[in-house]
Write a structure and sequence with these properties.
about 350 residues, alpha/beta, Rossmann fold, 2 domains, nine-stranded mixed beta sheet, six-stranded parallel beta sheet, about 35% helix, about 25% strand, globular
């Protein structure tokens, strides 16, 4: 007989396809692709058959560093290659929608970086186009497979904490590292580019619960250097029709030798607490008894392999991937609403109809 503690033992390891030899081609060979996509795919045995970038030098560097056999001279050459099964789009957001449409037209499955599109309407249109053609689009929300977050997701799905009533996230870290990088050019970096992962995992934990509205603010932290262009501090609140709520808080410039991102998920029957991107842990507390989980793997780089693995497994099994673009539409809506609210000094932005 299964004990109550055994009931909440979960296999949180990434799902991988039976055949990892089906070709993957990467569009966009910037720092993220070179530092995370390609190392993760090599570590987990995926076959990257080629790369393409409008900057031919960036594509050559990626090819040489990771022994990728082909540097495509054009996007059309990549899309015409019959060995390419999945197109991994790792470009900046402004060109993503057009690239997805071209890949879909060529009959390719797509893994796209986040945020998926500049608007929910554009994202939904691409999703519907892919579905009409029988193709899959997945979003590279690799944080879904950070071990503490993944375990939390599975525990919630199994009913370990009852109904979720509150989610709390804290960025106990500093954004000083973005100064002088291209991230510093993003007006709402802390909300739009960074916290989108936290909006997305909250979307996973609250499931299909209806969102009433989102409020957010961003602000320059005390003593933030004048040369730093994007605000480092932020907060966002998500209110649900049920009365449940979620909060993401970023102090902007935490002065600590042990940065991290602690989180709490409070339910009607139990509490989950943990930390990611730091001294990772995950703990389930039920009726005063605490169960701490042993963790294997990490968000970086294993989460990057997990997003691709889940997409390819879903194609093999003819199902929707957990990180499907359709599942991501609410995450995108929440993120864009938070950006709009911050630009309107914390005004409540309704989600319905986006």
């Amino acid at each position: 007989m299964m004990s109550s503690s055994d009931r909440f033992i979960v296999d949180y390891r990434p799902r991988m396809p039976a055949d990892r030899r089906k070709g993957v081609a990467i569009v966009g060979c910037g720092q993220v692709a070179r530092d995370w996509h390609l190392p993760a795919y090599r570590k987990h045995g995926f076959e990257v058959v080629g790369v393409y970038d409008v900057d031919a030098r960036a594509a050559r560097l990626a090819s040489e560093r990771f022994e990728v056999p082909c540097v495509y001279p054009s996007l059309n050459a990549l899309l015409s290659d019959r060995t390419v099964h999945v197109v991994d789009i790792a470009t900046r957001p402004d060109v993503r929608v057009g690239l997805m449409r071209q890949a879909i037209a060529a009959g390719k499955h797509v893994l796209a970086q986040k945020p998926l599109a500049p608007s929910v309407a554009e994202a939904a249109a691409v999703v519907e186009e892919a579905e009409r053609r029988g193709l899959r689009i997945a979003v590279n929300h690799n944080g879904r497979w950070s071990p503490p977050w993944r375990i939390a997701t599975l525990l919630i799905e199994r009913g370990a904490i009852g109904d979720v009533i509150a989610v709390t996230h804290l960025h106990d870290a500093s954004f000083a590292r973005v100064q002088g990088t291209h991230f510093d050019e993003i007006p709402q970096f802390a909300i739009y580019d960074y916290s989108i992962h936290w909006f997305d995992i909250t979307r996973c934990w609250l499931g299909e619960a209806a969102v009433e509205c989102v409020r957010a603010r961003s602000f320059r932290t005390p003593h933030q250097p004048a040369a730093a262009r994007t605000p480092w501090g932020m907060w966002a609140e998500i209110a649900y029709d049920s009365g449940a709520s979620a909060v993401v808080r970023g102090v902007g410039h935490s002065r600590t030798g042990t940065p991290g991102h602690p989180f709490w998920v409070h339910g009607t029957e139990a509490t989950i607490r943990g930390n990611v991107l730091g001294e990772d842990f995950l703990e389930l507390e039920t009726s005063g008894r605490k169960q701490r989980y042993l963790l294997e793997g990490s968000w970086y780089p294993d989460g990057f392999a997990a997003t691709l693995g889940e997409l390819m497994a879903a194609v093999e099994e003819d199902r929707e991937p957990f990180n499907s673009a359709r599942h991501n539409l609410l995450s995108l809506a929440m993120t864009l609403a938070a950006v709009e609210s911050a630009e309107r000094d914390g005004a409540a932005i309704p989600i319905g109809g986006r």
